[in-house]
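Support reply, case 0932

Customer input (verbatim):
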Amino acid sequence: MPAAALLTEPSRVRHTIQHINDYIRDQGLRVGDSLPSEGVFAAELGVSRAVMREAFGALAALRVIDVGNGRRARIAAIDGSVLAHSLDHAVSTDQISIGDVWDVRRTIEARTAALAAAQRTEAEADRIVELAALMERDVADRPTMTGHDLAFHEIIARAAHNPLFLQIVRSFAPLMRIAVPAAWDTRLARRDQTIIIERHHAIARAIKAGDAAAAEAAMNAHFDVSIGDVLKGLGPSNPIPAGAGNGL
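Our regenerated output:
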């Protein structure tokens, strides 16, 4: 009798999930490769189709597999939305603070800026410079400027050419959609806005010039002010809304 048949149903589901993960690893499957059908796994493990559906559903929610109508499940690509949801849950339940998130984000983004300066393509460098200019152009249009700001940080992470950095930076995007406008609400004076825009230009120039040390220093200078503004804008009277992390 298969070992899974001796377990309770929740334990069967956990056992089945672990078996599928082990199968993916042992078979050396890669993104886009197909898995055996639920029926094949069910017969092998001695579990019901209901257990298999729950296991496949859990793995799909975690973006381990991609389940589409009318075709076999396939190995999914890494997806920062899973981490984004975890961050949102951790913040909304007071397990971590916004300050914790931004401290980690500062460390990661300083490193991605340095890597981007060393490894970016010319097209990526030009896009980073362009997005800094678009932020300056649209500084009075808060939603549009916020979109440029998010894109600016994402293309820097992409230009670092480390897919894990990209997904981690993308996971911060839902929080940034709240935090960036709130921070800009503290920058009503034109001089303050000009300083922040210039810091984005400085990051872009350093990356374009291939100067990793200057890019890292410029990103740190940007965060020196930004973290303080975020924490002021997202205090107890104006918390991150529940579910903010679900829209990545």
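We compared this against your earlier run and they match. Two observations from our side: The beta strands are 65-66, 74-75. The two ends are 44 Å apart (CA to CA). Please reopen the case if you see a mismatch on your end.
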